[in-house]
Amino acid sequence: GTEPVIPFWGTEPVIPFWGTEPVIPFRPYAWGVFEQLPTLSDRRIAVRLTADALRHVRAGHPWVFDDSIVSASHEGDTGDLAIVFNNDRKFVGIGLFDPAGPIALRMVHIGKTATIDQAFWESKINAARAIRQPLLDAEFGGHPGYRVVNGENDGLPGLIVDAYDTTLVVKLYSSVWFPHLRTVLAALETTMRPSSVVLRLGRNVAGGETYGFDDGDVIAGEIIEGPVLFTEGGLRFEADVRQGQKTGHFLDQRHNRMRLGRLVTGRDVLDVFASTGGFGVHAAAGGARSVHSVDISAPTLAAAERNMALNADRAEVQACEHTTEVGDAFEVMIALARAGSTYDVVVIDPPSFAQKQSSIDVAVRAYTRLTHIGLRLVRPGGVFVQASCSSRVTSDLFFATLLDAADAAGRELRQMVRTGHDIDHPVTYPEGAYLKAGFFNAL
Known about the structure:
By secondary structure, this protein is an alpha/beta fold. The chain contains twelve helices and 20 strands. The protein folds into three domains: 66 residues, Archaeosine Trna-guanine Transglycosylase, Chain: A, domain 4 (Roll), CATH 2.30.130.10; 112 residues, Transcription Regulator spoIIAA (2-Layer Sandwich); 193 residues, Rossmann fold (3-Layer(aba) Sandwich), CATH 3.40.50.
């Protein structure tokens, strides 16, 4: 086109860590597409809630369901600001209004009155970054991948921001963020100085009005054609930030992968639901004799092989025999067990089995079956690691399921450690606690 190119921030060049050529970023969507975004109404919605909902809001819960609204001053549009008042007409907080979904308000502020503008979003982002500073200090000298904003748990419900070195991925799980996208992006520019920003859309968002945006669009900065490189615990990885699962990498298992790397020296490792090889790469770098990666997706296993190759300069990785197998995890594990294959370490990190409340029983049966099969593959005295990312399956239920399954299989699981969320995935409300993993000695 003929429109001028606007620098992403200032005019300073950005030097990506994997090369030496400076890149002057630009805004591919500075013109055109952003103009299609809805404008934020100047008219605020005054809302009163049920007594129970008001208690939850004051306690910091980020959601208000539509049946908890007693009255509203007028009908608003998606993303409009709604001011919550108590019965004495005193200010309680501010939420983003959603007239279409079951969650009518996503609360972004509780307490004293506030102005929701770029400075407000900047303060939220800076507060979130401060929590993660120990992680960044530990990765000093690297180019870390980590979660900058963990949605509801950082006071920004339905908004995820992940960093891969200088690339940011903004994922929207609610359409309420579209009217605020301009100011949120400006806040990220100011606070993070990224080289690129990629927009990812949750399934429910991508299926509705997206105002000209597509999942995987680069909405600011340098156009990304291939994977982005970053570090995790000093190891190098790639992330397909535009088309990969989630935002390109499962960042939430970082501390568990690093823990595994300290337990595998000289051992044979089976990594089930391996995805792009996070556990396997850390195992190889930790001195594992062999790693066998299993996943149903050939492209993700190809990425796992590339991630292993990115760290081939390490003697431990060179010495590790890495093999991959494409197939259904349950079927592959059964075939391995029938063939008499065993391993010193078995890692099982499945996707969520309980996407809705009615699926909890199905999830429990799946975890039970995985434990039964997995323990057939663990040598006596070996290490058994199993994780769950199903928020509807509580930690108590998950670990009880594993122990019951082990008893039925005639194996004793002696707990080494139970883990939850890493520092960049804080939990501030009950539904936010989804991740749990157990490290056990299998006797």
